[in-house]
Amino acid sequence: MSSNSQSFEGMQLSPEILSGLKDLKFETPTPIQSEVIPEILSGSRDLLGIAQTGTGKTAAFGLPIIEQIDPNKKQVQALILCPTRELCMQITKDIKHFTKYVPKIAAVAIYGGSSMSQQVHKLHDGAQIAVGTPGRIKDLINRGRLNLGNIQWLVLDEADDMLDKGFKEDLDAILDGTPETKQTLLFSATMSPWIQKVAKQRMRNPREIKVSSESQGADNVEHKYVTVHARDRYAALRRLLDVNPDVYGIVFCRTRRDTKEVAAKLIEDNYAAQAIHGDISQDERSDTMTRFRQKDIQIMVATDVAARGIDVSDLTHIINYELPDSPETYVHRSGRTGRAGKAGISLTIIHMKEHGKLRRIESIMKKKFTQMDVPTGKAICEAQLMSLVHRVRTTEVDHEKLKPYLDAIHSELGDLSHDELIKHFISAEFNRFLKHYSNVKDISTQKSMYEDRNYGGQGRGGQGRGGQRQGQRPQQGGHHGQGRKDIQFRTYKLSVGKQDGFGPKALFDMINNNQSLKGIEIGGIHVQPKDTKFEADARYHDKVMSFLGRESYRGHKVRIFEA
Ligand code: ADP
Ligand code: MG
User: Is 184 exposed, middle or buried (0-12, 13-18, 19+ CB in 10 A)?
Assistant: First the structure.
């Protein structure tokens, strides 16, 4: 798609909006944004957008609407309808971010279960954008508190879900009270008969924009599976989580019952996990979501239906505790990671008889699964240990607050050597793991061909293996070197250099830290006082930019540039 290479700067958005995007680190538009933003900016034709979650729809409709709102008119000019209260809050928050530098534009979230008077108050104050669930919006209209007579844009977000939730009647009532002249923008993950019907009844000759599931960042997702006996499913899950200490993801189960069971076991085994399914009250769900967003919860265990409400974009992993019935559902699940250009991993636990299901998924997904072994106890201990060491290294030290205790600490530990001290601290934290995994058996029922390279995720496993690092270490060979002649290099610059104590070893450690960069060929390395240039296999370009751009070194955030 050529329009995909468009930039936000080239879209006739105001400098204020562009500054907001810069703060959000939105660098390039997603495919649906490149299609939809110019369309809304340049015309008033109705629009029907078909795209899965996570494709960036909020900015796709939000930015061009904000751009065109008249800030001096203190009346509702855009109405955004969405199915849930969480989404409503999320969209309102996104709009706040988009308008950070745009004066005099305000959005109000309107949903049931919270104070109506506050919402009315904001409307009174002249909010130009109302974001609401159909029930409460209709309520406010009926009470004469909300006037839609001046709206120019009507957005139906996640329209399929709104219809599924039985909001059709409310929608009709609301839409009947809106002006003929408005532009209607409908977004849905699927093109169901219901959607077609609404489009026919409520839209004028809409332009249809479809972002196919293949282009929704699927390229950033690696698909891997382990094969175990059904009875070892939970043990396999634990090991997959353990080999990825920084996992932030969703574990999918098929039924509510499994969801509850798996979550309960994980919690009992001390994981920061939580279940989310239909039996959970709205309040509890909001609370869980907040904690998940803040990463107090690392793992959500969910059914497919409940996972729709999990609106988080930087998931590192999707774990299929069980495969879903339909291949499309798998594609949808795995599309929850690898969003907005970031890399993601979808892990699946299967038993021997489920290989056929994988083939069916591969054929609709047009991508292959890689088999991997259930991580061994040793690999897990390494990953955990290196994660701990990394955390220790990057922890900020508050010298002032520590000061009063230093004497006491020194008198207790002062006689230990540097080496002993390290060992004591690590053991204090780590013995629990060593103990659990010192003697576990291998539970893979089928082994992969590529032993070392194929486990779990970005586990810290490869780092710091002392003398035996050759196998793990990205090869540093000149690009003129023999046997590697086909490799194309790209040159990068990292914002750390000799002055920061950075060097080739630190670079390799950083690369080894990221499973996705394993095996990458590194060319020349040039460490300068303030920065470091290096060459790397061009095929890993996106991964290099995204992974190394997230690293920190001795407390400094590392930036990466293409040199
Ligand atoms: P959708 O509504 O399609 O499910 P969202 O609008 O919620 O998707 O966007 C998904 C995630 O991607 C959000 O966290 C959002 O901040 C992020 N995002 C959207 N557009 C971009 C972009 N152009 N660059 C980087 N991140 C983006
Ligand atoms: Mg959305």
Answer: buried
User: Residue 206 has what DSSP assignment?
Assistant: P
Q: How confident is the model at residue 453 (pLDDT cuts 50, 70, 90)?
A: very low
The CATH 3.40.50.300 portion of the chain extends over 8-210, 221-376
Which residues does a 6 A CB cutoff place in the pocket of ligand 1? Answer: 26, 29-30, 33, 51, 53-59, 313, 339-340
Among protein residues, the one with the nearest Cα to ligand 1's atom 13 is 313
> Is CATH 3.40.50.720 the classification given to domain 8-210?
no
Determine the pLDDT at residue 107: 97
**Choices 3.40.47.10, 3.40.640.10, 3.40.50.300, 3.10.350.10: CATH for 221-376:** 3.40.50.300
Ligand 1 atom at shortest distance from the alpha carbon of 25: 25
**Is 454's pLDDT higher than 60?**
no
Return the number of other C-beta atoms located less than 10 Å from residue 515's C-beta. Answer: 24
CATH architecture of 465-562: 2-Layer Sandwich (3.30)
Q: CB–CB of 71/14 below 8 Å?
A: no
- Split at pLDDT 50, 70, 90, the class of 514 is confident
* Mean pLDDT to the nearest integer, 98-113: 95
Strand order in the sheet with 153-156: 107-110, 129-132, 78-81, 153-156, 183-188, 47-50, 207-210
pTM over 0.90: no
- pLDDT one-digit tens code per residue, 156-199: 999 988 988 889 999 999 999 999 999 999 999 888 888 999 99
